[in-house]
Amino acid sequence: MKHFFANFCLTTTSRLGLQRKLPATHSGFTLVEVLVSLAILSIVLGALIQTAGANASNAARLRDRAVAEWVASNRLAELQLSQSFPEIGSRTGDEEMFGTRWFWKTIVQKVEDDDLRRVDIEVRRIEDSKNPIITIAGFVSHPRLTVRNTSDNQQ
């Protein structure tokens, strides 16, 4: 009786209906095969997690860049629509957009044309950050050159 498991045989049925006994074979995976497959699975899952983290980081960076561009564009539009000509130099300020405080720096420079100013606007999320998220450049014309009313031009 103690050799029962050692002599265990599988019974198969052939196409003719004859049964024959086959010796038992090992089925399943060995420990080494399981360990190798787990190692491969862990490498693949690690790469997938790293990729997902990178995608989340990129999405946040792209969102910040888009919002920073809106902040800079708004600031430039304010200067272009202003009734006063911007003074040469730099000025800082902040603005809230989408629940986040954004810090901008406006740098106004003189150009060859006395009726124009070059304006560079840098936007940051952290006030003292050395690297802006975005920098845009534009020009502002002197307000006296702006047509205020079309009826004035017709006279």
**Cα end-to-end separation:** 121 Å
Which CATH architecture would you pick? 2-Layer Sandwich
For the largest sheet, list the strands in their spatial order: 3-4-5-6
Please count the helical segments.
2
Mean pLDDT: 83
Q: Which stretches are poorly predicted, pLDDT < 50 over at least 5 residues?
A: 3-8
Helix and strand layout, with pairings?
Blueprint: E1 9-13, E2 19-23, H1 31-81, E3 89-97, E4 100-110, E5 116-124, E6 134-141, H2 150-154
Describe the structure.
The protein has 155 residues and is an alpha+beta fold. The protein has one domain (31-146): GSPII I/J protein-like (Pantoate--beta-alanine Ligase, Chain: A,domain 2), CATH 3.30.1300. The strands form two sheets. Strands 3-4-5-6 form a four-stranded antiparallel sheet, covered by helices on one side. Strands 1-2 form a two-stranded antiparallel sheet. It is built from two helices and six strands.
What are the main properties of this structure?
single chain; 155 residues; alpha+beta; Pantoate--beta-alanine Ligase, Chain: A,domain 2; four-stranded antiparallel beta sheet; two-stranded antiparallel sheet; 6 strands; 36% helix; 30% strand; rod-shaped; disordered N terminus
